Amino acid sequence: MPSIRRFTVIPRLPTNLEPLRTIAHNLWWTWTPSARALFLRIDEALFESVHANPIELLSRAPQARLEELSRDDAFLAHLDAVAQGLDRYMTRESWFQKAFPDASGATIAYFSMEYGLHESLPIYSGGLGVLAGDHLKTASDLGVPLVGVGLAYAEGYFRQVLNSDGWQTERYPINDWSRLPVQPVLGPTGTRLVLDVQYPERIVKAQVWRVQVGRVPLFLLDANLEENAPIDRSVTGPLYGGDQEFRVRQEIMLGIGGVHALEAMGLTATVCHMNEGHSAFLTLERVRRTMEREGVSFAVANEACCAGHVFTTHTPVPAGNDAFAPALVTRYLEPYRAALGLTEGELLTLGRADPLDPTSPFSMPVFAIHNADHRNGVSALHGEVSRRMWKDLWPELPEHEVPILSVTNGVHTPSWISREMAALFTRYLGPRWVDALAEPEFWARVRAIPDAELWETHEARRYRLIQLCRQWLCAAAEKRGASPAAQAELEEVLDPRALTIGFARRFATYKRAALLFRDIERVKRLLCDPERPVQLVFAGKAHPQDKGGKELIRSIVQHAQNPELRGRVVFVEDYDMRIARALVAGVDVWLNNPRRPHEASGTSGMKAAANGALNLSILDGWWAEAYEEHGREVGWAIGHGEEFDDDDGDDREAEILYDLLEREVVPLFYDREAQSRLPREWIRRMKQSIACLVPSFNTARMVREYTERFYVPAIASSRRLREGALAGARELVAWKQRVRAGWEGVAVLDVALRTPTELRVGEPARVEVLVALGDLTPGDVVVELYHGPTEGGHDLPRGATVRMAHLESVGREHRYVGEVPTIESGAYGVSARIAPASPRPTRAFPTALLRWA
Predict the structure, then answer these.
(1) Which residues, at least 6 apart from 485, have a Cβ–Cβ distance to it below 8 Å?
(2) How far, in Å, CA of 85 to CA of 32, rounded?
(3) How far is Cα 56 from Cα 122, in angstroms, rounded to an integer?
(4) Are 846 and 403 in contact (CB under 8 A)?
(5) Distance from C-alpha of 552 to C-alpha of 162, rounded to nearest angstrom
(6) What is the Cβ-side half-sphere exposure of residue 533, based on CA atoms within 13 angstroms?
(7) CA–CA gap between residue 424 and residue 37 (Å, rounded)
(8) Res. 674 pLDDT band, cuts 50 70 90
(9) Which tens digit of pLDDT belongs to each residue from 579-596?
């Protein structure tokens, strides 16, 4: 091969169109209707053909068209208004600045394996990435001082192609970064910033790209450089590709390389948020750097760093989490282990659910849990599931006290609302709706929108969805070589007036995409009723190695080809964010029927609800919370929260689904007022869905919650431990060592009830406890009463705690007193326990030590 010198050619914009370049490179335009409309004015057909990528649009727009626009007063006025809007957005005082002035100067680094920001930047695969993208957008809206860290995938996630039988195959087009909304990060000399990331045999180099997401920068590491060997270039090749060794290499690049990148750009993260366990190796690199800078031990540096770590788990089953063979981990982390002063056993223990089992794999979630003060699941139910999954890490704690909390996911509403619905909101709620997403009183005004206007807007979106489905189906058929007659038939599928149900997501088997087809004759009757027709629109991808997921796709495609169902069932291939927006905006009902409790949260139903669709879902993830609070006012529940693991359960829930559709959903949709032909009750529920769900299930609420509960406390705790040459961290390590050394002498000697065994409601039960503390002092421990209803058994399945007061010391023994409140009648139990008194208020149970009566 000849030696090649590279250069980049960028569009030559007339001087007065230069602001287009700035707007195109800031993804703020993706959630700002006026900015999107600006690019549509340049060339709507071209814009749609390049997946709404404004960089590609500007590079392919004819120079004559650009010159024409430079003389168009109307276009220039539009451009000026958008440019001024971006400037105002970037400089306005933010919620974070006003709410937390003491946290100024902090930097929160958000690490994620994927980011779903827009279809023009294909570095995402599904819900995890879209959630991460919405998180960044909302951090920008709120002014949270956050930066994103990820990987620049040469191939990204695959493009889906279905053959005529419905079997999924994959294409991996190469990303051309010169035509994407990214810019290279430059070093001090003005050349591209290139990092060295240490692997066992050699150094792997990576450059850094910057994506501007409103006020938040996202930095992407790219190892696809000529200086690297082919095997090293592939580290940032496909998303979620390769074997275990490939995943370890990729996760080292994300976690350790990500910390390198931030430091090289002069950004020292105060807090690091790990979105799933993929980036957890960052904790080692932060500890290593702290040890090197401050000259402290691993224990001290680790305490200082853990205070600033947040870990969010999204996976409700152990098998879905990354876990690596011990030998693989020790080989790839050897350069870091040596610098940290850890033995191989000590390193592996950090990632083992059972530290005493030498064959136990190295779990990335366990590693993240051990190295983060703040941990959470992504819905209330998922928090419960996560505590159950990882309760053995705190063997003495009752399951409900395991310190893994929950922050229910949300969606960045402006990114997912259709432009027609956004215009309706602006007309009746005012333009402030974009900034009032978390205000229930504000969204109550949705009920005042005239029924006719809301229904007209919704029907226009359904019609638009059906037109797009026909276009997408025809384009896919043409690529497969279908006959003109077959293509012509696809131009008439679906009925713009029929009840339209949408199902779109990753095709994992637990999501049960084909549940509705378990009784095919009943489906035919349901869909083909001439008076009350129903139609189904499916989309989604299966992981390339998931044969079960691919079989589900094929089964649905084959149902769509059934002559009796043709035109009533469609599968839209190559699901992406563009297709997702059309679906959630255009369907009447959003269907979700996973096998509970395997759906950690789910966000597609939130997007549909914001557009007025009604949800029909298993009580799993977010819907369990939404339905518990609002019930049938906002949609329907399939079942009552039962959990099944077999075909019998699938049959039972399919039967419930059929009954709901036949007896409630379909009749309600077609119940029309005689004169206006409006479905008044359906519209009322649409309004209820929007008014009740939008202010709860949005990322404005979610990111505020992360900020108030995790980020700001982590900033304060991290600063407190680091000040004075890590004096706070040193004291904490010394305290832990002293408590552990003295714990053998700790015991509950006696629990005495000082009130009658039968009390009236409202009379407190007074309890005295005698404890031995050995060499420890009352200031080192907390003595608590653990109490609650026995519920007919001999245990306390879900007790509450009351902190006891130190009454007196008798030599090395100590007497404590406390009172148990009695709120309801029934059988109650009480016990006592001793725990170390955490000197760090943000960290519950800082050790695994607990002594029960």
Answers:
(1) none
(2) 9
(3) 14
(4) no
(5) 13
(6) 15
(7) 17
(8) very high
(9) 999 999 999 999 999 999
Within the chain, which residue ranges are assigned CATH 3.40.50.2000? Answer: 95-406, 416-697
- 372 to 254, 260, 277, 399, 733: CA distances (angstroms): 17, 20, 11, 19, 16
Whether 773 and 767 have beta carbons less than 8 Å apart is answered as no
Residues composing the chain: 853
Quickly count: other Cβ atoms within 10 Å of residue 180's Cβ. 19
Q: Which of 111, 107, 109 is nearest to 251 (CA)?
A: 111
Angstrom distance (rounded) from CA 508 to CA 593: 12
Residue 293 has a CB neighbour count (10 Å cut-off) of 10
Place of tokens 């955490």: 838
Question: How far is residue 828 from each of residues 15, 168, 305, 801, 852, measured CA to CA in Å?
Answer: 78, 58, 42, 13, 18
- Closest among 272, 252, 158 to 206, alpha carbons compared: 252
Amino acid found at 315: T
Phi-psi region of 535 (alpha: psi -120 to 50; beta: other; left: phi over 0): beta
| CA–CA separation, 455 and 499 (whole Å) | 13
Q: Which residue has the tokens 């509970």?
A: 596
Classify domain 416-697 at the CATH topology level: Rossmann fold (3.40.50)
Convert the pLDDT of each residue in 346-399 to its tens digit. Answer: 999 999 998 889 889 999 999 999 999 999 999 999 999 999 999 999 999 999
Q: Which CATH class is domain 95-406?
A: alpha beta
d(Cα 391, Cα 400) in Å, to the nearest integer? 9
In this structure, the number of other CB atoms found within 10 A of the CB of residue 755 comes to 14
Where exactly does CATH 2.60.40 map onto the chain? 746-852
Q: Residue 20 phi/psi, 5° resolution?
A: -60, -35
Give backbone dihedrals phi and psi of 162, rounded to 5 degrees, phi first. -105, 135
Its pTM surpasses 0.90: yes
Question: 266 CB contacts (<8 Å, ≥6 apart)?
Answer: none
CATH number for the domain whose boundaries are 746-852: 2.60.40
- The C-alpha atoms of residue 597 and residue 32 are separated, in whole angstroms, by 36
CB 411 within 8 A of CB 602: no
Tokens (6 digits) for 838: 């955490």
Q: How far apart are CA 565 and CA 569, in angstroms?
A: 6
